[in-house]
Design a protein that fits this description.
The chain is an alpha/beta fold. It has helices at residues 56-71, 79-93, 97-100, 102-115, 119-124, 142-154, 168-182, 198-210, 225-234, 248-258, 274-287, 299-307, and strands at 3-13, 33-42, 47-52, 129-136, 160-163, 188-191, 216-217, 239-241, 264-267, 291-294, 314-318, 334-336. It has two domains: 3-115, Enolase-like, N-terminal domain (Enolase-like, domain 1, 2-Layer Sandwich), CATH 3.30.390; 121-336, Alpha-Beta Barrel (TIM Barrel). It has twelve helices and twelve strands. Strands 4, 5, 6, 7, 8, 9, 10, 11 and 12 form a nine-stranded mixed β-sheet that branches. It has a three-stranded antiparallel β-sheet with strand order 1-2-3. α2 runs antiparallel to α4 (102-115), α7 (168-182) packs parallel to α8 and α10 runs parallel beside α11. The longest helix has 16 residues, at 56-71. The protein is globular and about 60 Å long. It starts with a strand and ends in a 23-residue tail after the last strand. One of its GO terms (biological process) is carbohydrate catabolic process.
C-alpha cells in the first residue's frame, strides 16, 4: 500500500456560543474561524483524516509545501518512520505544535479503518469507559464558581479542575472556598494556565497543598524545567507538567528526570506529536509509576483515554453557566469508548462531500 495523494480541506469552525474567557492576560474563546482537515489517500482505497480546529491556511501551506512531497509514495503503515521524518522536517521548518501530529493522527485513522477497528483498540485497549473531569473556563466570581461546581456535580461529574483569574491571592481564596464547599473527599485540581512566576507559584502551591488538591497544573510557562524542579521542592501538591512545551517525549523526559513531575505528565495527540507521541509519553511515565493525563476535549483524546492505563480522567471543558454537559459524557459522568472504525471527525461542521464518509 502506498500513499497516492494528500488533500487539505478548509472548514469553517464556529466559535463557542456563548463565548467565554480565560485568566487575565489571555485572549478568550476563539471567534468563528477556519480549520483544516488533512486527508491521506492510498492506492488500495484506504483513507485517513485528521482535524485541526485552528489556522487552516497555515495547515494548508505546510501540507502543500512540506508534507505532500515527503509523503507521496510512502507506505502509510510505516508510522514510526513517518513520525521520525516529521521531526526531521521540523528541524528546518519549526512547524506549529498543533500541526506536527496531524499526519500521525491521519495515519492511525487510516490503519484502524483498514482493519475495521476504533483507534483505541489498535493502540492497545485498556478500558471501555472513564470518568470525565469537569474543567472550567474562568467565571466571574467565587460565588459563580461554586454555583458551577454544584451544577457539575448534579450532572454526574466526579472531579473538577479550576481555571481561575491568574492572581495568586484571589485564586487561593477560590481554591479554599471550593474545597470547603464540596468537602474533603471530592477530587479537585487547579490549572494556572502559565500565569505565575516562581515566587507566586510557590505561594499558591502551598495553599493547594493545604487544601489537598489532586494536582497543580502549568502554573508557569514550561520553558524552564529547573523552575519546576525548584517548585516541586517547595510545595506538597503534586505537579502535573509537560502540557504545551515542545519536544514531545524528549521534553517530558527532562521533566521526569529533574523530579518535577511529582503528580505526573500531560499527554495529547494535539500538542505532543499525534497518537505516536502521546503513547511514547504514556509509556515513559508508566516506567516511573507516574500518571499520564490526557489533555483536552477532542475526539482523538477519547481514544487515548481508553488506551492509556495510567490516565485517570477525560478532560471535559465547562464553558458556560448554566452548565452544559459535553455530549460524550453520560449522566453518570462517564465517557464510553468509541465504537466506529478509525477516529472520525467532529460532527455538525459543513464538510465537503469527499469527507462525508469520515464523519
Amino acid at each position: 500500500m502506498r500513499i497516492t495523494h494528500l488533500e487539505c480541506h478548509l472548514v469553517t469552525v464556529p466559535g463557542p456560543n456563548p463565548p467565554f474567557v480565560w485568566r487575565d492576560g489571555l485572549p478568550g474563546s476563539w471567534p468563528d474561524g477556519e480549520g483544516a482537515v488533512l486527508r491521506i489517500c492510498t492506492d488500495e482505497g484506504h483513507e485517513g483524516v485528521a482535524f485541526s480546529p485552528r489556522k487552516g491556511m497555515i495547515v494548508r501551506d505546510i501540507v502543500d509545501r512540506l508534507l505532500r512531497p515527503e509523503l507521496i509514495g510512502a507506505d502509510p503503515l510505516q508510522r514510526e518512520w513517518l513520525w521520525h521524518r516529521a521531526w526531521e522536517l521540523d528541524r528546518v521548518e519549526e512547524m506549529p505544535i498543533y500541526v506536527l501530529g496531524l499526519v500521525d493522527i491521519a495515519l492511525w485513522d487510516l490503519a484502524a479503518k483498514a482493519v475495521g477497528l476504533p483507534v483505541w483498540q489498535l493502540l492497545g485497549g485498556y478500558r471501555t469507559s472513564i470518568p470525565a473531569q469537569a474543567s472550567t473556563v474562568t467565571f466571574g466570581s467565587v460565588e459563580e464558581f461554586l454555583d458551577v461546581a454544584d451544577q457539575c456535580i448534579a450532572l454526574g461529574y466526579t472531579s473538577i479542575k479550576l481555571h481561575a483569574w491568574g492572581d495568586w491571592r484571589r485564586d487561593a481564596k477560590l481554591c479554599v472556598a471550593l474545597r470547603e464547599h464540596v468537602g474533603d473527599d471530592f477530587p479537585l485540581a487547579y490549572d494556572g494556565s502559565a500565569g505565575f512566576d516562581l515566587p507566586d507559584a510557590i505561594r499558591l502551591g502551598q495553599v493547594l497543598s493545604d487544601a489537598d488538591y489532586l494536582w497543580y497544573e502549568e502554573p508557569m510557562r514550561e520553558f524552564s524545567v529547573t523552575a519546576y524542579q525548584w517548585l516541586a521542592a517547595k510545595v506538597g501538591v503534586p505537579l502535573l507538567v509537560g502540557e504545551t512545551s515542545d519536544g514531545a517525549h524528549m521534553n517530558t523526559a527532562d521533566f521526569i528526570a529533574s523530579g518535577a513531575a511529582t503528580g505526573g505528565v500531560r499527554t495529547s495527540a494535539e500538542l505532543r506529536g499525534g497518537f505516536t507521541g502521546a503513547m511514547r509519553i504514556a509509556h515513559l511515565a508508566d516506567a516511573f509509576r507516574l500518571r499520564a493525563e490526557v489533555h483536552g476535549p477532542i475526539i482523538p483524546h477519547q481514544h487515548l483515554c481508553m488506551a492509556i492505563p495510567n490516565n485517570t480522567y477525560y478532560e471535559s471543558l465547562i464553558t458556560s453557566n448554566p452548565v452544559r454537559r459535553e455530549p460524550c459524557v453520560d449522566e453518570n459522568g462517564l465517557v464510553h469508548a468509541p465504537t466506529a472504525p478509525g477516529v472520525g471527525l467532529p460532527p455538525d461542521l459543513d464538510y465537503p462531500a469527499a469527507l462525508s464518509r469520515h464523519v
